[in-house]
Specification:
The longest helix is centred in the N-terminal third of the chain and has 26 residues, at about 1-25. It is globular and about 65 Å long. The two termini are about 40 Å apart. It has helices at about 1-25, 35-45, 65-75, 130-135, 155-160, 170, 215, 250-265, 275-285, 290-300, 305-310, 335-350, 355-365, 390-405, 410-415, 445-450, 450-460, 465-485, 505-515; strands spanning about 35, 55-60, 80-85, 100-105, 110-115, 120-125, 140, 180-185, 190-195, 225-235, 235, 240-250, 270-275, 320-330, 350-355, 380-385, 385-390, 415-425, 430-440. The chain has 3 domains: about 1-105, Uridine Diphospho-n-acetylenolpyruvylglucosamine Reductase, domain 2; about 110-235, Uridine Diphospho-n-acetylenolpyruvylglucosamine Reductase, domain 3, CATH 3.30.465.10; about 240-485, 2-Layer Sandwich (Alpha-Beta Plaits), CATH 3.30.70. Helices cover about 40% and strands about 20% of the residues. By secondary structure, it is of the alpha+beta class. About 45% of the residues are buried. It contains 19 helices and 19 strands. A hairpin with a 3-residue loop joins strand 18 (about 415-425) and strand 19 (about 430-440).
């Protein structure tokens, strides 16, 4: 009798699953719901890891479809995970529960409103940063923060959910500093609007009208809902540019220079590489072989800049030194010249001026294909990061370097290389990002996302699960060290600790908001742990 009851229970569960899947297929366009095993495997992976098995992947084509999908799934008690461009390496969209459904936002990529007069743009959250930049360029406008280097594939909604910095971050901070308002699909399928447009009869032109509800959803990793639309502020696209680079033997002096440039708000981007990461980047990108980059440098900075790039080739930084790079923007040549003069003085104190080919080429081609997730010999890649106040950045970097020096035997055993990317964030701090490279076979994710030509060129290492396991451990230990040093994080996902040590009153408020908006706990379970 008990066996029969179990069979009936399993049959009922299967029937229920069939019912909600069948309903999903009626809510979105044909072909936008898949249960194909190959697709489910791909969407269950990110750059570094693999989550729990998925039941289905659904790709809504409108906000109304998104609302209907979310409502259908929560009514059926199915966990929901939203995916933007899919470039996470912190388990952000990887399912923590078996049989979750992934909502692919790639078709929600349309322009909603471009208001040149009032200086804002509203887009669907699945739009790529590169597409937004191209859309705004003819109007002489851009968002203050205008995307990560992965902007060909990174989405507006993904950046807002995870946190994001790079292009424009030296002066304008992170993506959260550029957003005005959001439309968020909640667990019950309703839309919650933030910013001035929440008043009903006001345009979405201002972030603040009472408590800042927009900020609640920035960096929530999808725990509170799915971002459907975002409104971002606009500024004039700067018409004058210049670039500076300097080499340092002592990273402490480099951090001091970057912090001073940041405090004085002189550079749109101020970033640095250690010798290991610069070596990897130089080997991966051949400036002389990339005619498109050369053409864009000539368009951006003139014929002489293009000739300088050809002359320097890839040998524009001493391979034994740290290198800092700045992009300077202004509305006039005089403004740019003033900033450049100050940066030169700061660099000259302890650094050695060098060819500015790297920041010049980066700005000429700011968005590139996501090939950097594999090294020049096909190595796997994953970063870990933290943001530190200027007063702590050099000390933190030294402690991190000491940590890896103590782990040298592990690194040698598993053939793991560690490099560093650092970049300033507005006037407040510096992001330090150790990057791991090691040999292991490529995941299905890599084989689909990385360009075929690059995959063929770099080759694929033999399976090496022991080294990947070692990287998992090192990555977690590094994140723990950074938190002990007082660092904070973007891209929390399911990797970085959110709750540990947090102010109890703040945590209680967040939990109350989560309970109000997602009472069943179905929106991306496992994030912000």
């Amino acid at each position: 009798m008990a066996v029969n009851a179990t069979i009936q229970s399993n049959s009922a569960a299967a029937s229920l699953e069939t019912a909600w899947l069948a309903k999903l297929r009626t809510l979105v366009k044909q072909g936008s719901v898949t249960t194909d095993p190959t697709e489910l495997l791909f969407f269950s992976q990110d750059v570094f890891n693999q989550g729990a098995p998925l039941s289905a992947v659904v790709t809504p084509g409108s906000v109304a479809e998104l609302q209907a999908v979310v409502s259908c799934l929560t009514e059926a008690n199915v966990a929901i995970v939203a995916r933007g461009g899919g470039l996470s390496y912190t388990d952000g969209y990887l399912a923590a529960r078996n049989d979750s459904v992934l909502v692919d936002m790639s078709r929600l990529n349309k322009l909603v409103e471009l208001n040149v007069e009032d200086r804002y743009v509203t887009v669907e959250a699945g739009m790529y940063w590169a597409d937004l930049n191209e859309l705004l360029a003819p109007h002489g406008l851009r968002t203050p923060y205008w995307g990560p280097l992965s902007g060909l594939r990174s989405t507006i909604g993904g950046a807002l959910s995870q946190g994001s910095v790079f292009l424009g971050s030296g002066e304008h901070g992170s993506v959260g500093d550029s957003v005005i308002g959001l439309d968020v699909a909640l667990a019950d399928g309703s839309i919650l609007s933030t910013g001035s447009s929440a008043a009903g009869n006001a345009k979405p032109f201002l972030r603040y009208f009472g408590p800042d509800l927009t900020g609640v959803f920035v960096g929530d990793a999808g725990a509170l809902g799915i971002k459907a639309r975002a409104t971002l502020k606009l500024i004039p696209r700067h018409i004058e540019l210049d670039f500076l680079s300097a080499e340092y033997v002592d990273p402490t002096q480099m951090f001091a220079a970057m912090s001073e440039i940041s405090r004085q708000n002189l550079a749109a981007e101020c970033f640095a590489f250690d010798p290991v990461l610069m070596d990897v980047r130089k080997r991966r990108m051949s400036l002389l072989a990339d005619a498109k980059t050369l053409i864009n440098v000539v368009k951006q900075s003139g014929v002489m800049a293009g000739l300088g790039l050809v002359k320097s080739g890839r040998d524009f930084v001493d391979e034994s030194r740290y290198s800092a790079h700045c992009t300077v923007e202004g509305m006039s040549a005089e403004e740019v010249a003033r900033k450049v003069a100050v940066i030169k003085q700061i660099f000259a104190q302890h650094g050695i001026a060098t060819e500015n080919a790297f920041p010049k080429a980066l700005r000429a081609m700011p968005f590139s294909a996501p090939n950097s997730m594999l090294g020049p010999d096909g190595e796997r890649w994953v970063p870990v990061h933290a943001i530190f106040p200027h007063s702590d950045s050099a000390r933190a970097f030294g402690a991190i370097k000491d940590f890896f020096a103590a782990k040298q035997s592990v690194l040698d055993q598993h053939g793991i290389r560690v490099g560093y990317l650092c970049t300033t964030v507005a006037q407040q701090g510096t992001l330090i990002e150790p990057v791991f490279y090691w040999n292991d076979t490529h995941m299905p994710y890599h084989k689909r996302v990385v360009e075929p030509d690059y995959l063929k060129k770099c080759g694929e290492p033999a399976p090496n699960p022991a080294s990947t396991a070692a990287v998992h451990v090192l990555k977690a230990e590094t994140a723990q060290l950074m938190r002990r040093l007082g660092g904070t994080h973007f891209q929390l996902g399911k990797f970085y600790s959110y709750r540990e040590g947090r102010n109890p009153a703040a945590l209680a408020l967040f939990d109350a908001i989560k309970q109000q908006l997602d009472p069943k706990g179905l929106m991306n379970p496992g994030v912000l742990k």
